[in-house]
Amino acid sequence: MTQPTPIRRALDLAAHGVPVLPLRAGKVPFGNCPHCADNTCGGRPNMKTPGPCTCPRPCHGWAAATIDPYVLNSHAWASAWRQAAAVAYHPGGADLTVVDLDNPAAVQWARRTLPATRTVPTTRGEHWIYRGTMRSVNGVREGVDIKSLMSYARWLSPGIGAMAALPDAVRALAVKEPSPPRRAPQALTAPLRVGQGQCPHRTRTYLDRGIAMAEQRITEASSAVHATVYRTFLAVLSAHGRCGCLTDTHVTRLFTAAQSKGETLRHCTDAWTNAATRLGL
After folding, report:
1. Model confidence, pTM
2. How do residues 25-64 score in pLDDT, each as one tens digit?
3. How far is it between the farthest Cα atoms of the chain?
4. N or C: which end of the chain has fewer CB within 10 A?
5. Contact in structure between 120 and 159 (CB atoms under 8 Å)
């Protein structure tokens, strides 16, 4: 049997109320367009629906997911669907939570610990799908991620078995245990602000949102912390580095988030400087 094209599969899922978006090879969503890089347009969405951005391209990762066939079939999305390697969906937008079990040991743990529900085989493990939503958290234990609100999961198949309601046992996985005391973050000794140009953003709210999202991206990193910190600094400077809106307080917030993940002040300063240099700031 011929497999449906990504756009045909997407339209079928959307018709059943599942918000979908295209994925590039490597299970990566299509990147932000230049006008909306790092959500500088202010389109940070709420928990279930895309934000106010009017850009027609699928430029907000999981928040680009939609059930609107006119958007999915639009000329603006045509290129993305032609290049798409797979279809993803926004579980939270479909009132679902996916427990992503990434290896056989994680699957065995789930069978011993969690209530039975619909399961979907994956390349390395299984997706367990429950009715209901919660915040998404990666690395709740070895090989286990939770994908629900503000996240996406690859669509693989309808799955097998009856779908159960989201149990407290899964919600409890998102509650982090107290971390052992860390060395207190070191304060900046010299300002690292850059740029004195005119601020292009409509209100300061977008800067505040951007800094909060950057902090969250760093603190939720479960691996490759060095790379995550650098990429996050690069995104912040790309969006806000050429105007005078960044303050020492903003930079300190980002450095504190990085140091909470084990980075040193020197690592933070080097990452910030390297990102600024790359952008020519």
Report:
1. 0.60
2. 877 787 766 666 555 554 444 333 444 455 666 667 787 8
3. 65
4. N
5. yes
